[in-house]
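Curious: can you check?
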Amino acid sequence: MDARFTAEQDEIRRTVRELLLKRCGPEEIRAAAGTGAGYDPGLWSALAEQLGLPGLALPEAYGGVGCTVTELALACEESGRALAPSPLLATAVLTAPLLLALGTEAQRAELLPRIAAGELTAALAVPGTALSLALGLVGDNRGSWAGGGRAGGVQARRTENGWRLYGQVEQVLDGHSAGLLVVAAHAGGFARPRTLLFLVREGAAGLVRARGTSLDAGRPQARVQLRHVPAELLGDEHVEVADALAATGDAAAAVLATEAAGAADRALERTVDHVRQREQFGRPIGSFQAVKHRLADVYVQVQAARSAAYYAAWAAGNDTERTEGTGQTERVGGLALAQALEALRTAAAEGIQLHGGIGFTWEHEAHLYFKRATGDELLFGPVHRLRAYAAECSGIFALAGSEEVAV
C-alpha cells in the first residue's frame, strides 16, 4: 500500500476546502439548516457543477468522474471540517452505490447521470431505526430488520398495475427533499419473506413526507409514510440485497469515518486557537501544562482516527474485504468509523470545556461538532457495537475460544 496521496487527490481536497471556506461559514451553516430543504441549493449546485462531487465515485459511462471511494472520502473529509449541510451523504454515499450495484441497465442509464450532475438527489429509507443494521455495520443484515414478513416496517405487494408499498419509515436522511427514495421493504408474506429495494419517485400518489427535528440540524431527517404508493423494483427479485447493502455500508462507514476525522481535526484546531488567546492569571491558558496534556491526548486520538479512516477508504476503493488466509470478512470501515466517532466526540467535548462558558452557548459553533458526533453515533453506531461486530466478523472471539481450549 502506498500511503501517499496522488496529485489529483491533493487537488480534490484543496478545491473542496477553498470552496467551503468561501461558502460555508458558521452563519451560512445555520441559515442553510433552517431552510425547508436543510441545505443551500446554491452551494449544492457549486459542489455538483464545479467540482462534480455527486458523481466523483461513479463510472464515466454514467456521467461520473470515475474515481474511487478514496477520492469521495477525501472530499467528505473537507465537508466534515466545515460541517457543510448537503445531500452528498444521502445521495452519493448511501444511495448511488445501490443503484449502480443492483439497478437494471435502464435504471442506471436514467438515474445515475442525473445524480452525477446534481440534478437528482436521493435517499435510502430503511424501516424503523435499523439503518446501521441494514448496512451490516453492527450485525448480520440478513435478519428481520425489514419486518421479515411480520406486521410493521414497509410491506411490498404485487398488483396488476405493479408493486405497491405500504408502511412508514422514520429517520430518513434528507428524505423530505430527495427527488428519489430507495425504500427497503419486505415481500412474499410470512411464508417466503425477503427484503427488496424499491424506487419511489417524488410526487408519487400516497407518498407523505415531513421533516422531523433532529439533534444535528446538518443531518436533516424525515418521516416517510407510504400509503399504497406505486413503486418500481430496483433490479429484479433475484438480486442479493443484503450483500449490496453490506458492501455499501462498509464503504459508507469509511467515508463517514474520514468525514468525522476532518470534523475532529477542525474542532481541535479551533480549540488550540482559543487557548492561545484566552488568558487567565495573566497568561494564555494554553501555556498551562494540564491544558497541553489534554490537547495532546486529543491530537493523538484524532491522528490515529484519521489514519484508520484513510486505510478504510483505501481498502474500500481497492475492494479489500477479506483477511488473508482466514476467509473472514474484515470490517475495516466499521472499525474506522468507531474510532473516528470516538475521536470527534472527545475533540468536541474538550473544545466545549476549554472554551469555557462561551462553548456552551448556541451562538458558538463548538456545540455543532458535538452534535455531529452524537447524531452520527445514534444513526450509524453505537461505537461499542461497531467494534463488537467487527471483532465477530474477523473471528477474534472464535480464535480466543480455541486458544483457551488449547491451554
User: Anything to note?
Assistant: Residues 122 and 178 are 5 Å apart (CA to CA). Residues 241-277 form the longest helix (37 residues). Residues 321-329 have pLDDT under 50 and may be disordered.
